[in-house]
Every structure is written in C-alpha cells, then in structure tokens.
Write a structure and sequence with these properties.
With 51 residues, the chain is α+β, with helices and mostly antiparallel strands. It has one domain. It is 45% helix and 20% strand.
Amino acid sequence: MYVWFRFCDTVGILTPLKTYEIIKKLTSLNLLPIEMHTHNASFEQVLMNRT
C-alpha cells in the first residue's frame, strides 16, 4: 500500500513563493511523500462564463 499527502490549490489563491514555503515545511518533516495538485478553477469559471 502506497500512502502520500496530496497538497491542493484548486482555486489558485497561493502565490509561487507561498507554495514553496509550505511545501518546504512539509518536506522537512519527512513524514510522507508529497503530491501537488493545482489549477485555477476560479479563472476557468470566468472564462467559461464569457463564451
């Protein structure tokens, strides 16, 4: 069984620097492998509503 921690920002509110700081703290704990999932659903919704 493979266990990992999935860190998500699916609304696009984190800056690259803030994301780096959070991931750096999490990886320093050496508890679980970290998977990252990001996209900007808020902006995608704006685009979909414009068409």
